[in-house]
Amino acid sequence: MFNDYYKGKKILVTGGSGSIGKKIVRELIKYDIESIRVLDNNETELFNLDNELNSSKVKIYIGDIKDDQRLKTVFKDIDIVFHAAAYKHVPLCEYNPLDAVKTNVLGTQNVIDMAILSDVKKVILISTDKAVNPSNVMGATKFLAERLMIASNINSDEYGTKFSCVRFGNVLNSRGSVIPLFKNQLMHGGPITLTDEDMTRFIMSIQQAAKLILQAGFLSKGGEIFILKMPAFKLSDLVDAMVEYYAPQYGYDKDDIEVEIIGKRPGEQLYEELITPDEILKVYDNGDLFIIRDELNEDHEDFVYNSNEIDHLSKEEIKEILIKMDKIEV
Questions:
Q1: Which ranges of 54-106 does DSSP label H, i.e. alpha helix?
Q2: What is the model's pLDDT at position 171?
């Protein structure tokens, strides 16, 4: 299905050296695409990715989405843009709000403008659950990025550029996420720093994230927000599962690992939401996906989709996910 759609396409991935961006590139290269351009401002990670893939189809571009002049070259003759470039760390955005706005909001507008000027067919924004009823700078900037992306369809005619969004939960083992942090702390015998025992989060694998993005690119007609149906977990249960699973691997007794409660970091929420009450009225069930469209669904069902209200994974289920994750990495 995907291969037929992406066959012969010229694709650009912004933020292509990040965890999600790299996975998108690795997945796309499996298809019969014409070329993939990878844009990022991280020179070292781009160099490593280029050496790893060693493909004539992959073209590396050092640059920044804040630089609209640079984008003119990168966007030329592109069919589809997967826009993953963003500042994503909540505390850093709290302390550097203007820079977060410049990249996540103004940078996204640059991507939109250049896509329209370059006659790109589709643009897919990679967003986050923190954009729903945002309580921190990062979430607020991603909320605005979503609004900019969806609103751009108003000025797009039948043959113009189509803009859509993909809204994620927490991506397992992505760069800067809690699992690499906890693993590193366990390697050194602890303590594990837990923000709050009652904190809950949605969870998805990098493989699921990449599949959702490619599915969105395939399904997008403009104006949609695509959301994977995903489970949630308590952060304290994740800590317990990781201690039980990893401590013996690193030569420690699980009972000797201490957990230190450090409190919420600046801007953090106790739970996350993926769909607002207003959006529930416009949700369409697409099997493994929810699709939010800018039209009322007369057959919609009322439900709450936040990480506190849905059933949580058990410690054993989390441990199974960790085992599967390690097998995939190997």
A1: 68-74, 90-95, 97-100
A2: 85
What is the block-wise mean pLDDT of the chain (330 residues), using blocks of 10 residues? 88 95 94 96 96 95 96 97 96 96 98 96 96 94 97 82 93 82 93 93 89 93 94 94 94 94 88 91 92 89 87 93 76
Cα 209 to Cα 19, 134, 215, 230: the distances in Å are 10, 21, 10, 11
Q: Is there a contact between 12 and 65 (Cβ–Cβ < 8 Å)?
A: no
| 130 part of the active site | yes
DSSP letter (8 states) at residue 115: H
**Protein fold of 2-170+204-228:** Rossmann fold (3.40.50)
Sheet containing 232-234, strands listed edge to edge, beginning at the edge strand earlier in sequence: 170-171, 200-204, 232-234
Instruction: Report the distance separating Cα 142 and Cα 108, nearest Å.
Output: 9
Candidates 23, 130, 234, 282; catalytic one? 130
Asked if residue 191 lies in contact with residue 257, where contact means CB atoms within 8 angstroms, the answer is yes
**What residue segments make up the domains of the chain, in order of their start?**
2-170+204-228
